[in-house]
Amino acid sequence: MSEPYELSLSDAAAAVSGRRLSPVDLVESTLGRIEQVEPRVRAWARVVAGDARRDAERLAAAVRAGAVAGPLHGVPVGAKDIFYTAGLETSCGSPLMAGFVPAHDATAVARLRRAGAVLLGKTHTTEFASFDPSPARNPWALGHTPGGSSSGSAAALAARMCHGALGTQTSGSIVRPAAFCGIVGLKPTFGRVSRYGVHPLAWSLDHPGPMARTVRDVAVLLEAIAGPDPHDASTLGAPPVPRYAAALDAEGAAPRVRSRVGVPDRYFLDGVDPEARAAYRAALDALANLGADVRDVRLPGLFEAGMDAHEIIHNVEAAAVHLDRYRGHAAQYGEKLRACIETGLMVPAPTYVRAQQLRTALIAAMEEMFGDIDVLATPAAPGPAPEGLGSTGSPVMNKPFSFVGFPSLTVPCGRTRAGLPLGLQLAARPFDELTLLSLAHAYEGATAPTPDAPPL
């Protein structure tokens, strides 16, 4: 019989709600797994075992009384260490924030708790969710990066140290580490999940989102954390949140795919290594075999200029976020974030405005492109996780969708000869996460219905 820590989020939640597994046993199993492998993986900034045990006891009593809080009742989760957590340190991967204890939860954290989740602690982030690496390692190969900036969340999930986690993406910080660690990560549409209580990197590019081991698990988490929040105006105009997991369940075990899947004419195969390229082509064939209409599509002419504009907006907004602190503590910033801030400080205001204007134009052009397709399929990264811990890899494949705010997701699509995971990235029109989840769920079911675990 599987250890409870090995269960998927969905299976663990079902076992708890069906009284086949106690939240106490589930949390104890997961804490035991952390004790076993965390010294090698180093995914956690801090673990609050005592708090988790008390929450598990409370939730176990609720089950005995016939009261289940929600779809995550008793399920152990982690939160990237830029999400505010009431009474629990949020240091953002920086000595400048050491000892900061928020008085309130981020909206996403509060919603996980309300759904019954047990917060095990805070997962490592790169410094202020930028490019200076965290201590986390890739569970598939400890000498390789787990990606960033949601490095600890991806590593903890792959190593079976939690069942779900929160990440954020400003360029490629959910999709890239998820791909590198062989899990599922979803960057929602901008405005689908509240940013309230999440330390910003670049306000207009930041996207909180769910990470887990399976597509259905991500759907459950997204449904729990999504929706309007009066503390974040960007969420107020979003359409209602679908019942994502129920929709996947209704499709059955062998759904027939009818999506139009676009294959981009350029950009997304530049610099992609041979094994990742072959895995991508195999994934396209698998989608076609499932019934998808796989067709070539031309990216807008503004596309490459938009990627340059992304860098301008990213750097300027990061400089604005950090300006006051940076003036007095520049030497305490990491090299990569310091370079980003210094670059942003040198950008003239008209250049930033022009970059935002170009962004608006590219969003319109991408929406027009999605009139002919339902999903755009690309590699999730130029290759597997790079060797070494001094870099978190390139977000080049992911930042287009952070820039325009369209939803994107990665699902595992095999491994290299050396055993490192590879990911397929799917993107859709705004607020159409359900189409992404449905296609990824069908692909996952046909190719890898049981997630692989790293040989730790």
Description:
- It is built from 14 helices and eleven strands.
- The longest helix is centred in the last third of the chain and has 27 residues, at 303-329.
- With 456 residues, it is an alpha/beta fold.
- It is globular and about 60 Å long.
- Helix 9 (274-289) links the parallel strand 7 (260-264) and strand 8.
- It has an eleven-stranded mixed beta sheet with strand order 1-3-2-4-6-5-10-11-9-7-8, with helices on both faces.
- Among the domains are: 4-256, Alpha-Beta Complex (Amidase signature (AS) enzymes), CATH 3.90.1300; 303-365, no CATH class.
- The protein has helices spanning 9-17, 23-41, 49-64, 107-114, 151-158, 175-181, 215-225, 244-250, 274-289, 303-329, 335-345, 349-369, 399-404, 433-447; strands spanning 44-47, 76-80, 118-123, 164-169, 184-187, 207-212, 260-264, 293-297, 375-379, 408-415, 421-428.
State the end-to-end distance: 19 Å
What's the tally of helices? Answer: 14
Q: Helix/strand-derived class?
A: alpha/beta
Percent helix: 25-40%
CATH superfamily of the domain at 4-256: Amidase signature (AS) domain
Q: N-to-C SSE series? A: HHEHEHEHEHEEHHEHEHHHEHEEH
Unreliable runs: none
Number of strand segments = 11
